[in-house]
Write a structure and sequence with these properties.
Helix content: 55-70%
Structural class: mainly alpha
Strand order of the largest sheet: 3-2-5
Largest sheet: 3 strands, antiparallel
Shape: globular
Strand content: under 5%
Number of strands: 5
Distance between the termini: 98 Å
Oligomer: single chain
């Protein structure tokens, strides 16, 4: 490193670098100051020698010492440390020692933060400040960002507090990082409070972060109040600000109101971009005004903005969802004619639509044409095809496409496997489904709750509830929490197998886990009791069910009526039916035949 400095008259106490940094887009300026006396020189060169250290910026934005074990600084006039008088040399050496310690401390802080050792970094920051040293803003900003990423906003706020109290001056980027962290954690109030007490003026980036958070939570009115405060501080909205507000207005008040904001945006000299127009087109499509959206698309060029692939995808999706396949084909052709290359999403929209309509061969044609347009099919391209084949009970074809998918380097995701497992269980191939489930982890795809629920339901329905219970223990060990659907399948299976007492014990377990049993669980237990000729217990269970706030269905009463007649109590069954009809609980015509048949 060589730094040339013009130095006709240079006054200062010691050699130092002046370092001014603006974090984020941090541009560094380095100047060199010289020793206590004045020297008239034509210029001097400071050369990096072994041991020379350059210090990171002081949080004050002031000078940062560049001291080292170098004993002499080469200069055009032969200036060395030995030229300096004794008092100046001692002052140099004292400040050098202090600066060296501060530099080393901040160096350690940077390393800890870079390695993701946030808690250790925080402890080190506290020790830096306790020694009276000034922490570097840049690693402190990274420390705040790190804590915000793991939702430890209180710790991030504490870092900011330490910074402010240490004499360091956080810049707007440091504040924006904490504001963003608050907003992502749903702490919009804290973000607003921080903005109100910032030691520097907020910028449009900070305001946009808060506005997005408020709008995403449906607080458009409050967002507009923030815009008013923004204008009062002479911080003016940009295209991102208006796009955020337009999108929120589309959701809450409709496109017509959003268009007024567009007009205001233009009148203030803020030019809408393609994202702004995409938001409006999307809102128009959601209101069912597809033709208006198409007109908007066609007029975009006259507004000085070219539609992109996302614009076309929005309209394409709307066309497919409303069954306008011919229009979708025309739009795709027009898109290609204009030189707007389709994306993977474009093709996935078309494939999904065709598969829903059962046009599997046409969907396959679209899939095969994707590489011609520079698009590689992903799991979302194959999933609709697999689902379509499974729906048509063409399991061999589905497995063939699954293998094709893998051979092309596209690895199935959990949605793919869930689709296959559901189809296999419905087709009675539960053992194959279990085998695939056991192989998922080795394929780098972790099963989720619905994966286990699907296979457990399949096992329960073929009389293998004991194996399903083993899967229940397995999913718990993996940290997955069973839900009411899990227990509904198990209780149903146990009751079906005549293990009513076990199903009742499982019900108690469900209640102990603060999961509210559904009507299917109660009905399954009552069915098991009736099959065991214990209809009187089933009637008691009905009473218990109602006391727990679970409303019986027609199936509930059908089970009881069948249970009574199964035990030869046809008279009691008819009396119960009459009472239920008189109360308007069920229609007699729907259950008359049940009693007769029984």
């Amino acid at each position: 490193m060589e730094l040339m400095v013009s130095g006709k008259q240079i006054h200062c106490d010691v050699f130092s670098f002046h370092h001014d940094t603006n974090a984020g887009e941090r541009k560094r300026r380095y100047g060199v100051s010289c020793c206590s006396k004045s020297w008239a020189t034509d210029g001097f060169m400071l050369k990096k020698k072994q041991g020379l250290r350059r210090w990171s910026r002081s949080p004050y934005g002031a000078e940062v010492w560049a001291t080292s074990t170098v004993e002499a600084f080469s200069a055009s006039n032969g200036l060395t440390l030995s030229n300096v008088d004794g008092s100046a040399r001692r002052k140099f050496q004292g400040n050098s020692s202090r600066s060296f310690e501060e530099f080393e401390s901040n160096k350690i802080l940077r390393r800890l933060v870079r390695n993701g050792e946030l808690d250790e970094g925080f402890k080190h920051l506290e020790s830096i400040v306790s020694r009276g040293e000034v922490p570097d803003i840049i690693p402190c900003t990274s420390l705040i960002r790190g804590f915000c990423r793991v939702r430890k906003t209180r710790k991030a706020a504490r870092v900011m507090e330490i910074l402010e109290n240490s004499g360091a001056v956080p810049d707007v980027i440091t504040y924006n990082v904490l504001i963003s962290g608050y907003c992502k954690s749903g702490e919009t109030r804290n973000a607003l409070e921080l903005m109100n007490r910032m030691s520097v003026d907020p910028d449009v980036v900070g305001y946009n972060t808060i506005l997005r958070a408020l709008c995403n939570r449906g607080n458009l009115d409050e967002a507009m109040e923030v815009v008013d405060r923004m204008l009062m501080k002479e911080c003016y909205p940009d295209v991102i600000t208006y796009t955020i507000l337009i999108e929120a207005t589309c959701r809450e008040s409709g496109v017509e109101q959003a268009m007024k904001l567009l007009d205001e945006m233009r009148s203030r000299g803020c030019k809408p971009d393609v994202v702004t127009y995409n938001v409006l087109i999307n809102g128009t499509c959601k209101e069912g005004k597809l033709d208006d959206a198409i007109k908007f698309l066609n007029n975009m060029s006259s507004y000085g903005c070219q539609p992109n692939v996302i614009t076309h995808n929005i309209i394409l999706r709307s066309m497919c969802s409303t069954g306008r396949w011919m229009d979708a084909e025309k739009l795709l052709a027009e898109m290609l004619r204009k030189g707007c290359s389709p994306s993977v999403v474009t093709f996935n929209i078309l494939i999904n639509f065709l598969c829903r309509k059962g046009l599997m061969e046409r969907a396959i044609d679209i899939l095969e044409k994707m590489p011609e347009h520079g698009c590689t099919p992903n799991s979302l391209s194959y999933n609709p095809l697999l689902h379509g084949f499974c729906k048509e009970k063409k399991m061999e074809k589905a497995i063939e496409f699954l293998e094709l998918m893998v051979s092309r380097g596209c690895y199935p995701d959990i949605v793919t496997y869930n689709t296959m497992l559901t189809a296999l269980c419905k087709d009675g191939k539960v053992d194959l489904a279990v085998m695939i489930l056991n192989q998922l982890s080795s394929k780098g795809c972790s099963p989720v709750l619905i994966t286990y629920n699907t296979v457990m339901d399949g096992l329960s329905k073929i009389g293998k509830t004991e194996q399903a219970m083993e899967l229940l223990h397995e999913m718990r060990e993996k940290g997955l929490r069973p839900d009411v659907i899990t227990y509904s399948s198990l209780v149903s299976g146990l009751s079906r197998e005549g293990k009513v007492e076990e199903s009742i014990r499982l019900l108690k377990e469900v209640e102990g886990m603060a999961i509210r049993p559904n009507v299917n669980i109660y009905n399954s237990i009552m069915l098991g009791l009736c099959k065991a000729r214990e209809t009187h217990r089933a009637i008691d269970f009905l009473e218990y069910m109602v006391s727990q706030g679970c409303k019986p269905t027609e199936s509930t009463y059908t089970i009881l009526l069948e249970g009574l007649t199964y035990e030869g109590l046809s008279k009691e069954a008819c009396e119960l039916l009459d009472e239920l009809c008189s109360r308007g609980v069920v229609k007699k015509t729907s259950l008359d035949q049940t009693v007769v048949d029984s």
